[in-house]
């Protein structure tokens, strides 16, 4: 079965926390913590965000951004030494991610940028992007539903492998009401799996049944050819 987005993210966290110099690993941009002293972060810290993903024949690639930041209240710290330390940590993290024993193929070409933050204390960092390619064969056995196959048999799936975004019955006051077709959520950076009435709704454009379109920029999905109907069960995971 394909390695899930959640599993990739958890493995990245493990790699960061196993490094002896990294004190904190956070999902998000460093600015969310650097400019808020109340946030619980010890430096040096690794911050990361997922940016996008794409699928090709036989594989799925997830693209992440990483920033390693060090921060100190001592004004006499040499900023270049601080950057050099962050640069070395970045090299170590990349080496672990690229290790052949990992469950992905890791991008070997990485561009680095060096950052300085306008704070009362001294904060510097190194950012880089990386891609993780995993096998993806569109196997029905990976889908998170008791999905009925055309021959009438069932495929029973462990839904714990995915993160539930929505699970509701269409109606007044719900994320989708009768006849509606568009749904926006910050989790929709990547195309989600969408089930309506127990059946998987695909992304292939058709004229005779519903299909999904996805916009990663607006984080929106659209249910084409009719939207949803009252009392239908909508189940969406990533």
Structural summary, described in words:
By secondary structure, the protein is α+β, with helices and mostly antiparallel strands. The chain has two domains: 5-136, Alpha-Beta Plaits, CATH 3.30.70; 140-237, no CATH class. Helices cover 16% and strands 37% of the residues. The strands form four sheets. Strands 1, 2, 3, 4, 5 and 6 form a six-stranded mixed beta sheet that branches. The protein has a four-stranded antiparallel beta sheet with strand order 9-15-11-12, with no helix packed on it. Strands 10-14-13 form a three-stranded antiparallel beta sheet, with no helix packed on it. The longest helix is centred in the middle third of the chain and has 19 residues, at 79-97. The radius of gyration is 21 Å and the shape is elongated. It starts with a helix and ends with a strand. The relative contact order is 0.14. Mean pLDDT is 83; it is low at 140-157.
Q: Domain count, please report it.
A: 2
Named CATH topology of the largest domain: Alpha-Beta Plaits
The largest sheet, given as strand count, sense and whether it forms a barrel, is: 6 strands, mixed
- Given the C-alpha coordinates, what overall shape results? elongated
Number of strands: 15
What separation lies between the terminal Cα atoms?
15 Å
């Amino acid at each position: 079965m394909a390695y899930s987005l959640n599993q990739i993210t958890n493995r990245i966290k493990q790699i960061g926390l196993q490094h002896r110099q990294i004190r904190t690993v956070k999902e998000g941009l460093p600015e969310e913590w650097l400019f808020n002293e109340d946030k619980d972060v010890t430096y040096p810290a690794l911050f990361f965000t997922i940016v996008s993903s794409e699928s090709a024949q036989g594989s799925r690639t997830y693209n992440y951004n990483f920033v390693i930041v060090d921060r100190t209240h001592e004004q006499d710290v040499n900023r270049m030494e601080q950057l050099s330390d962050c640069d070395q940590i970045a090299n170590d993290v990349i080496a672990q991610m690229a290790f052949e024993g990992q469950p992905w193929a890791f991008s070997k070409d990485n561009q680095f940028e060096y950052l300085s933050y306008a704070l009362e204390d001294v904060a510097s960092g190194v950012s880089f992007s990386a891609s993780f390619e995993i096998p993806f064969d569109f196997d029905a056995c990976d889908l998170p539903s008791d999905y009925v196959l055309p021959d009438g048999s069932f495929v029973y799936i462990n839904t714990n492998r995915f993160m539930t975004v929505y699970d509701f019955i269409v109606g007044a006051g719900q994320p989708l009401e009768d006849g509606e077709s568009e749904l926006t959520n910050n989790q929709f950076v990547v195309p989600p799996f969408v089930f309506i009435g127990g059946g998987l709704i695909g992304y292939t454009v058709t004229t005779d049944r519903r299909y999904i379109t996805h916009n990663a920029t607006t984080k929106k999905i659209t249910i084409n050819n009719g939207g949803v109907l009252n009392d239908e069960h909508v189940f969406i995971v990533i």
